[in-house]
Prior knowledge:
alpha+beta
Amino acid sequence: MAKLKVKWVKSLIGYEADQRRTVRALGLKKLHQTVEHQDTPTIQGMLRKVRHLIQVELVEQEGA
């Protein structure tokens, strides 16, 4: 399964509480922090909800 690198790039000031909770649920605690997640439908839905606040890139898997 593919991995995604998610970086938080825009502040949450002025955005709804559900978007704040989604960013937290992705494991992002500070602006410009990067985390990795498996590419699952659940994660895709979360990323779609806050796509205006984050950057996403596909991580190359070695040996696959």
